[in-house]
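Handout for the seminar on molecular recognition.
Each group receives one record of this type.
Step one: identify the two inputs.
Step two: read the structure output and locate the region that could contact phosphoenolpyruvate.
Step three: write two sentences on what you found, then compare them with the reference statements printed after the record.
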Amino acid sequence: MSIQPVGNASGRVIMGQKNIWIGTNWKMNRGPAEAISAARALSSFRPPKGIRTFVAPPCTSLRDVSSVLQDSPMIVGAQNMFWEDSGAWTGEISASMITECGASMVVLGHSERRQHFGETDWTVNLKLRAALRHSLTPLLCIGDTLNEYEFGVSQETLARQMKIALHGVSQEELARVLIAYEPVWAIGSAGRPAETAFVSKIHTQLRDVVEDIAGRNSAVRIPLLYGGSVSKANICEYVALPDVDGVLIGRAGWDPADFMSLVDSVSALVSSEVHA
Ligand code: PEP
């Protein structure tokens, strides 16, 4: 499935016209057998108009999930990749290996990779540019730590992560990037969902940084997703925010029935709400 930039000339979008992105990252869950069965459960799902869905299985399940979902609107993505095309990089997978598995997206810079596997802004930039070279859609994850949040420097951290990750990316390529703001303190079972007022403020600031990078007159609207303890109880509040273009879901989206129900729960917002 091809991914089109969305937006209007002013850069601010009418909700009914923008695409909402809803995806789930399975993390290190589901080997091929379980992944195939979950993908089958998702395969006949048709999200409401205006909503694009994606799933990021572990790399060992990527080929099977892509094949089960090949006729479905569900986009399939990897959770990570290396920036070189091939060579002596034990344990790594390349962008072309991901595309050969039938996937079209890749999650990059997830905070768990930054925290536990030494991912840096610089390596995220190398990966993002390699993904674009291979026509993958990068979903760039950025996030502030609890310390940064408490010291009031979230915005500085996020702007730095975004600027470095997108360094050297052309305007045309920018139109193919998605960004997810995922506060580290909001992710996982120990996390608490970020307050909507805070997410709204951060996303508006991020929109400004993106506009600085893309150029003020650019009609490209890079989708800005929120992630971190999204659930049935809060998904609509996040998606209704004017500068939020969707959500990246972990735990609450792992069960296919729950995922489809989360997607369906925002359908009324997509068709009825209007933001100037
Ligand atoms: C994540 O880790 O990207 C995430 C959003 O997790 P959760 O929804 O489980 O907090």
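Reference statements: Residues 25, 182, 187-188, 191, 227-230, 248-252 surround phosphoenolpyruvate (CB under 6 Å). The beta strands are 20-25, 51-56, 75-78, 105-108, 137-142, 178-181, 224-227, 246-249.
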